[in-house]
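re: ur question from earlier - yeah i can do the single chain one, its not a big deal. heres the input i used so u can compare w yours
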Amino acid sequence: MTEALGFVNAGAALGIGLLVGLERERRKGEEGRRDVAGLRTFAVTSMLGYVTLWTGGPLLLGFVALALGALVTIAYWRSLDQDPGITSEVALFTVLVLGALCVSAPALAIAIGVVMAGLLANREMLHQFARIQLTAAELRDGLLLLIAALVLLPLAPDRYLGPYNAINLRTICALTVMLMSVGALGHVAVRTFGTRYGYVLGAIASGFASATMTVATMGHIAAKEPLDVKLLSAAAMLANLATLAQMALILGAVEPALLHRMGWSLLCGLLAVLFYASVLMFPRPRAHAQDGIKHGGAFSLKLALMVVVAMTVITVVSSAMLDEFGQAGVVATAIFSGLVDAHASTASIASLAKGGLLPFDGIAVPVLMALTSNSLSKCVVAWVSGGRQFAGFVIPGQLLMTLAMWGGLWLSSL
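and the output i got, formated as tokens:
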């Protein structure tokens, strides 16, 4: 059994060397270049790493790596005039390590080898992306997002501070990162699919993170791209699809009977959103179509901070209402908390109903009050972020959706 495993691991090492070596072999001779290693060299180096670690351990592997480094250095200096790059040399060292890794973790080594071969094979595409397609502003915003998500967010303390213990620095950082991510997702969608469908797809996807933040992002873009204001307004409205879907999932997960009780309201809201967004999107005048996409930054940090500060203030007010009125103020609390997030209010109300503190027939009004206040919040955000023209398209849509959901409640009571 052990011998069979040894052959499998050795085969994995050989496969990695052949895969990477095959890609490097195709590069040899292109544009008069001559790489230091080809198919056979990479295959032998990978097997050398496997056999060295298997027989002599890490110490012997270190000596082999030093010897290989000396040979590669000599070959590099000899071919410096023809090929000043060091990609093949670095790949050769990587293959040696991956071959050694096949002794203990062949699956991981194979995965890394495949990824490396893919990176080597797509050299031209990656170079074009880095030099031509990716702008300096996008690179700056990408680095800023990574710093916020991977450095600042983990360091933020996860405890409640301030009045009513309503302020959580980890939550504030998470909301900021979320809004930045929403903007970046929409930007990538537009760069990939164009303005007509990119904004819509990005808004629906980012709506599952935060529909209110999506409205703010679409409004910020509309302020810079006024010719696309109708399309961006439709995208902002379609972000409500994520809100309705999440509300349905929450109600169904807590208690399926609650979803049945709210079914007509959710369906009417869904149809209203689709109808209104379709009116805005189709037909789209050709005179307003923008074939060229302006490549600015991926998101607005200023907008993200403004929205997060506003939501933090609303959270403090909601906590004060809950502390003042308790469970007797379920509707009032739903209204204020809905200004921040309709999903949290829905989950809270559904939990009260399942626990017997609120009758099943009494959940519809608090849930719709939360959604109504959330629509009001989106209207305010639309006005602040996108101006009068953007708000002029978004506010009627939010009003139509809200009235449709209240109408659905009336239909279910007949």
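The radius of gyration is 29 Å. not sure if urs matches, ping me
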